[in-house]
Amino acid sequence: MMDVLDVALRLVAVLVAFLTLPLLVGQTEHKVMAHMQGRVGPMYAGGFHGWAQLVADGVKFAQKEDIVPDGADRRVFQLAPAVALIPYLLVLVAIPFAPDGGVGQAVDAGIFFVLAVMGVGVLGSLMGGWASANKFSLLGGLRTGAQLMAYELPMLLAAASVAMAAGTASLTGILDAFEWWWVPWQIIGALVFFTAGLAELQRPPFDAPVADSEIIFGAYTEYTGLRFAFFLLAEYAGIVVLCALTTVLFLGGWHGPFAADLGWVWTLLKTSVLAFVVIWLRVSYPRLREDQIQRVAWTGLVPLALLQIALTGVVKVVIQ
Predict the structure, then answer these.
(1) Rounded to an integer, what distance in angstroms lies between the CA atom of residue 79 and that of residue 75?
(2) What φ, ψ does residue 84 adopt, rounded to 5°?
(3) Which residues contact 191 (CB under 8 A, 6 or more apart)?
(4) Helix (H) / strand (E) containing 133
(5) What is the mean pLDDT of residues 278-291?
């Protein structure tokens, strides 16, 4: 009975985090962009500091009509938002947030599990683009697939470097083996991993697949109402997952002063700082062209990831 209760509590905690953290990131993005760009609405909606902006957005999406184009593949079109969103819930189950069992489910090959499941989420955009019977949607879906193929490799190589350093592919094992001098040692891999994750989430400046000025909104052009909101929620959930994984792999996760009691606080704090960086990049940098996006991946990130792996191998041999 105690085992069943423990599993139930862990699942509830993961579900609560999945339902709240992406919304907090979305609300924060409204506020940060409002301050940086002088936007009036998000600062005054509802009165005190625009507290009702997120509520207003939710009501707006709920009120809009759910439309399926006549020429669309109806079943695939309707299923795509769920395919884009659910993988991030599964990934959160495997991310440790506190010491001594503070994880939904420890997975022996945790790195490979989370990266494989995150890759499934991109299929939602591909499905939506193909099923919409719209050339702009199809173009956005193809751009999404091209980015996935380009940035999955450096992301995996950067994560493999940390696994080499720790001697395990388990996320909890990596945190158990973590040392603070790893932060400067693995900094190149951290930058590669974080940048590749931004590209996979199609966040600026890697948002060519959803470029509103070129292809309207990419794979999501024909989506309305709550289905479109699910795609946006998947994006914010992806931000939470990317920042949490970067924290666990490269910044020590729950390691910090009084980690035994405040480990979860350190995890959330580091994740929040990285989420702010994601929002700041959206406000600060222009969109890259599709050819520039591919060039960054193949001529920039892949060589850097290989360099990090080589450096990790050298340091490991010297230490041993």
Answers:
(1) 6
(2) -75, -30
(3) 304
(4) none
(5) 88
Tens digits of residue pLDDT in 148-188: 888 999 999 999 999 999 999 999 999 999 998 999 999 99
Q: In whole angstroms, what is the distance from residue 238 CA to residue 84 CA?
A: 10
Q: How far is CA 290 from the centre of its chain?
A: 20
Where is pLDDT greater, at 71 or 171?
Answer: 171
Dist. CA 243–CA 293, nearest whole Å: 21
183 token code pair: 């932060």
Give the N- to C-terminal CA distance of the chain in Å, as an integer. 45
- On whether the pTM is more than 0.70, the answer is yes
Q: CA 110: distance to chain centroid?
A: 16
Band the pLDDT of 1: cuts 50, 70, 90. Answer: low
Those residues whose C-beta lies under 8 Å from the C-beta of residue 183, and which sit 6 or more positions away, are 190, 250, 251, 252
Tokens of 212: 């509103």
Q: How far apart are CA 287 and CA 218, in angstroms?
A: 14
Of 54, 64, 56, 202, which Cα lies nearest the Cα of 128?
202
Q: How far apart are CA 319 and CA 45, in angstroms?
A: 57
Angstrom distance (rounded) from CA 271 to CA 98: 13
Q: For residue 9, give both structure tokens.
A: 């509590």
Q: Is 80 exceeded by the pLDDT of residue 218?
A: no
pLDDT of 215 strictly over 70: no
